[in-house]
Amino acid sequence: LQIEDLSKQLQEISDKLDIINVNVLINSTLTEITPAYQRIKYVNEKFEELTFATETSSKVKKDGSPADILDELTELTELAKSVTKNDVDGFEFYLNTFHDVMVGNNLFGRSALKTASELITKENVKTSGSEVGNVYNFLIVLTALQAKAFLTLTTCRKLLGLADIDYTSIMNEHLNKEKEEFRVNILPTLSNTFSNPNYAKVKGSDEDAKMIVEAKPGHALIGFEISNDSITVLKVYEAKLKQNYQVDKDSLSEVIYGDMDKLLCPDQSEQIYYTNNIVFPNEYVITKIDFTKKMKTLRYEVTANFY
Questions:
Q1: Which domain holds residue 118?
Q2: For position 24, what pLDDT does the model report?
Q3: Is 199 a member of any domain?
Q4: Which of 124, 157, 180, 231 could form an SS bridge with 162, CB 3.0 to 4.6 Å?
Q5: Using an 8 Å Cβ cutoff, are 204 and 270 in contact?
């Protein structure tokens, strides 16, 4: 799920409600976070682009003229100097500003998560999925952006031979505060009822059932989708991961699991949902999920492997 898609969705919602021009709080939050987001996104992408170009040139042209490699190294070094520059308009300033807006440490005390949740949960706006899922997706995309930014910042300092700074602790502190903002102030206001404007009922089943979703060796599970055509199926997306948890697009594949309706309870059954955090150590990725329905209760077991 890309931040551009979420931003577009939020903007479309805002346009429909016609509230951006009349609600100074929402307008203020979006105005604060947008420049920081644009700066962070640009630097992350530019650094990755230059790093890839430099590594490629080094491999391809190691027997030829080093002129092109030198040019790319120079450009990469200049970017690193800009990223590590310590001033009020520097990369770290925008990274801190981004975090402040995420947790509501700003002029009006309004977090970007609160703004996102209010735009998503308006009654006259139809969005697929649950309110919890949609706002949590927004949080996940923005925290991933920050994690990548801290990695960029750390790598730039090493490239220039600057003293190490424990950005890992700073990053964890930021992300933990953002997750706490979501858990304490946002989650209680959201519904976890799943909705879909194009919803089609499924039959469900009283039978006990089991389904094992497992990625191929060397792959990770990266996405899921329930499709309801002639039968209800679960579409699972898996792929190999490159450095920094980037998806190898050439390895992306879709696996379809049938009989999904057997995992769902029939219409007359009471549906009760519980949310629970599953946390693995850093550098682990999900490779397998076991779904088991017994006596109309669906449970799942998640397996993660070291990446």
A1: 3-189
A2: 63
A3: no
A4: 157
A5: no
What whole-number distance in Å separates Cα of residue 177 and Cα of residue 143? 11
Query: Which regions of 102-231 does DSSP assign to beta strands (E)?
Result: 209-214, 220-228
Same domain, 231 and 140: no
Query: Which residue numbers in the chain have pLDDT < 70?
Result: 1-26, 56-72, 122-129, 192-203, 228-230, 244-246, 267-277
> How many structural domains are present in the chain?
2
**What residues have CB less than 8 Å from 111, skipping those under 6 apart?**
29, 101, 102, 103, 104, 181, 185, 186
| Per-residue pLDDT, 202 | 62
Q: How many whole angstroms separate alpha carbon 101 and alpha carbon 29?
A: 7
Residues 6+ away with beta carbon under 8 Å from 140: 1
Is 196 part of any domain?
A: no
Q: Do the beta carbons of residue 292 and residue 300 sit within 8 Å?
A: yes
Task: Answer whether residue 40 is part of any domain.
Answer: yes
Contacts of 157 (CB under 8 A, 6+ apart): 80, 84, 163, 164, 165
